[in-house]
Amino acid sequence: MELSGGIEFFLNYCKHQKKFSDKTINTYSIALKQFAELIQSEISPNITLNEIQAVHIKRFISWLHYQNLSKKSIKLKLSALKSFFKYLYKSEIIENNPANTISLPKIEKNIPSFLTIDEIRAILDQSQPNDPISLRNIALIELLYGTGLRISEALQLKISDVAPNTKTIRVVGKGKKERIVPIGNKAKNAILNYLESRKNIPNSSNVNALFITKSGKPLTSTDAYRIVNSILKQYSSAPQKSPHILRHTFATHLLDNGADIRSVSELLGHSSLSSTQIYTHISTQKLLEEYRKSHPKA
Predict the structure, then answer these.
(1) 150 given a catalytic annotation
(2) What strand order describes the sheet that includes 162-163?
(3) I want to staple 211 with a disulfide (CB 3.0 to 4.6 A). Which of 30, 161, 219, 249 is the partner?
(4) pTM score, whole prediction
């Protein structure tokens, strides 16, 4: 099988069997097609999958560095390549896995920004007009801070996913995995107030999406970024002012107040504890700062 055919075969597998998100499939597609273009132009336009060796992948790595890509971008592209060849080998399409000896670059994890309790209180305790758009904005922020949802998860919510009686929401996360997430009274009430006012938005009855624009269309990630960013600019000095900082704040505040890391990991929809442990560094850092400020011998 030629390289191009193998890539098409793999992407169909990711879409139809693994049910990967469109974003993941697009990331894989770009990386694999870049690899194919480089190898086909430098080695052979008709190179077969079994002819590809580790040296070809190393040549691709050199090319990525030459493009001045960040370590994170290079790691994503190599992860796509490793998944591709692992699949081909397990499916017995290739005899040897040329990516088996290729290591991913190590990336230092940056400690994420988060809002202080005073900042989040100032945002959520502000008096809001009762128009649908203002109520939508505060409901969105209450939900993101109160549940730790990714913005993509919040924007995928349908009205039917919200269960006010049990104070839970049904969330579809990465890899199409579903989880039930509890919501507090403030977030629940903010959503109910918004839903009541939402009826006044034109065409709203025809749209299942929970969060919509003033013209009755589903809210996009760009819309959500602008909403959150404009509000955070008024109340926070944090360097990051995107919807994701509310997810960071949710996790940090839970751990600061004694929540179990496994429970926080489950609420965030993380597949492993290692993804959640970055937030324990924040809590530890805060503890050290308090120690240095307060202890006479620090």
Answers:
(1) yes
(2) 162-163, 168-172, 178-182
(3) 219
(4) 0.62
Catalytic residue list contains 281: no
**Tokens 């993509």 belong to which residue?**
152
3-state secondary structure of 91: coil
Q: Is 226 a known active-site residue? A: no
Catalytic annotation present for 248 = no
Of 18, 33, 75, 150, catalytic: 150
CATH of domain 117-293: 1.10.443.10
Q: Where are the domains of the chain?
A: 3-90, 117-293
- Choosing from 18, 174, 217, 286, the catalytic residue is 174
Report the C-alpha gap between 250 and 109 in whole angstroms: 19
174 in active site: yes
The three-class DSSP label of residue 153 is helix
Question: Is residue 270 among the annotated active site residues?
Answer: yes
**Each residue's pLDDT tens digit in the chain (298 positions)?**
889 999 999 999 999 998 888 889 999 999 999 999 999 999 989 999 999 999 999 999 999 999 989 888 999 999 999 999 999 999 999 999 999 999 888 876 666 688 888 999 998 887 677 899 999 999 999 999 999 999 999 999 999 999 999 999 999 988 788 999 999 999 999 999 999 999 999 989 899 999 999 999 999 999 999 999 999 999 888 888 899 999 999 988 888 888 888 888 888 888 777 767 766 655 555 555 555 655 565 4
